[in-house]
């Protein structure tokens, strides 16, 4: 985990539960070190490479009622951009016009994101502060996040200043595969099947 992750996530209530289960000493040192460290935490090449391959993530925001709201965000692989060492962003596509996440982020900027790689059971969690950027405000930024080959209406961009992140435990992530990920394994099987069918057809033809 990055330096500040524990100091954000491990609140006194969390550390009390950790104490009950025997992990308070280990995680407490991380929380104390993170609280004393200068910030913000820098994204490394590992995070850049990982995000460049993701085609979805989950976004948690908090509304004025105090309720958290979790939403799926998807797009072409790499639609989440690493803008610099401390920020990421993405084009916000038109959806069902509820605008719950957009409204929440306009009030409370703190968000949490989870990026999953089901095929390899990897998970990256991010804490950050989000801001909405529209095309009139920064046309170049919004254009830089727009993929002209992807058929979606871009209504705005979202930029998140990363506060901390953690490569979370891969336990209990059920492996799942996209069609694109399966294609590499399926195509050789299709070719082999076609060859066997052709061979069988020749053998049957030789018997007649």
UniProtKB/TrEMBL annotation:
Q: Which SUPFAM superfamilies does the protein's record reference?
A: FMN-binding split barrel
- Look up keyword ATP-binding and say if it applies: no
- Taxonomically, the superkingdom here is Bacteria
Ranges in a coiled coil = 179-206
Q: Where is the Pyridoxamine 5'-phosphate oxidase N-terminal domain?
A: 44-142
Keywords, ordered alphabetically: Coiled coil
Q: Name one Pfam family in it.
A: PNPOx_N
Statement: the UniProt record of this protein carries the keyword Cell wall biogenesis/degradation? no
Name-wise, this protein is Pyridoxamine 5-phosphate oxidase
Q: Supply the source organism for this entry.
A: Mycolicibacterium obuense
């Amino acid at each position: 985990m990055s330096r500040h992750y524990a100091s954000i996530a491990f609140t006194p209530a969390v550390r009390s539960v950790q104490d009950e289960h025997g992990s308070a000493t280990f995680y407490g040192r991380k929380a104390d070190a993170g609280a004393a460290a200068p910030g913000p935490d820098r994204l490394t090449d590992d995070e850049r490479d990982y995000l460049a391959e993701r085609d979805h993530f989950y976004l948690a925001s908090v509304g004025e009622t105090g309720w958290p709201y979790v939403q799926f965000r998807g797009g072409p692989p790499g639609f989440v951009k690493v803008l610099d060492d401390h920020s990421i962003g993405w084009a916000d596509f038109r959806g069902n016009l509820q605008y719950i996440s957009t409204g929440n982020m306009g009030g409370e900027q703190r968000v949490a994101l989870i990026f999953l790689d089901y095929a390899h059971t990897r998970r990256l969690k991010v804490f950050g502060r989000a801001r909405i950027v529209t095309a009139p405000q920064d046309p170049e930024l919004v254009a830089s996040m727009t993929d002209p080959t992807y058929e979606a209406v871009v209504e705005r961009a979202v930029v998140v200043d990363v506060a901390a992140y953690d490569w979370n435990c891969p336990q209990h992530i059920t492996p799942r595969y996209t069609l694109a990920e399966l294609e590499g394994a399926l195509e050789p099987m299709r070719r082999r099947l076609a060859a066997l069918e052709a061979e069988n057809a020749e053998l049957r033809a030789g018997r007649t």
